[in-house]
Amino acid sequence: MPRAGLDPTAVVAAGAALADEVGLAQLTMGLLAERVGVRTPSLYKHVAGQEDLNRRIAALALSEAADAVGGAVQGYAGRDALAAAARAFRAFVLEHPGRYAATVGLEPSGPDDPLAIASQRLLDAFTAVLRGYDIAESDVHHALRTLRSFCHGFATLQAAGGFQWSTDIDESFEWLIAFADRGLRAR
Question: pTM score, two decimals?
């Protein structure tokens, strides 16, 4: 019988929090079982295994990132929307580096996969940003990849301690936003 209060949602939430603390690569079923106070085999009543747990964490992370970015861009257009989206995405990655790491490189199993649904929501939020620019429909995917590369690259480098210079990181990020805005406007 499953432990009272423990269900797939609680297990995934605990796994995501633990991934943020120790890093996704260090997250194991054994460590998670210890965190939630059960023996490791008990977790298999809620998730199919490590791969399933990681996929569920990724779907959660993408959904949370979509909420953050989508909420941030409401009422903004152009550079203001770009800045709001980029800042919200960066903040999410910095606050949740482990769960965000789960999102990289996973392929949805189909259109109904929670991973696909959450991914599309995040893409929709960034696509809304692009509406403030004169981007040809045929170039939207290229622009989305460019924005993802900017935001993902900066945030993951920062989360990993990759900026060791004394220059203010926030100023560098604002420079990146201005750079992306100029590039989108020139397109």
Answer: 0.94
* Closest C-alpha among 141, 144, 160 to residue 101: 160
Burial letters for 12-25: b for 16+ Cβ neighbours within 10 Å, e otherwise? bbbbbbbbbeeebe
- Counted residue by residue, the chain has a size of 187
Q: How many CA atoms lie within 13 A of 43 on its CB side?
A: 26
Residue type, 124: D
Write the CA distances from 57 to 16, 130, 152, integer angstroms: 6, 28, 18
Q: What DSSP character marks residue 49? A: S
- The string of pLDDT tens digits covering residues 79-125 is 999 999 999 999 999 999 999 999 999 999 999 999 999 999 999 99
Q: How much of the chain exceeds pLDDT 70, in percent?
A: 98
Q: Which helix (H) or strand (E) holds 26?
A: none
> Where do the H-state alpha helices sit in the chain?
8-22, 29-36, 40-43, 50-73, 78-95, 97-101, 114-130, 140-159, 169-186
Look up residue 54 and give its amino acid: N
Which residues are CB-neighbours of 6 under 8 A, at least 6 positions away? 36, 38, 42, 46
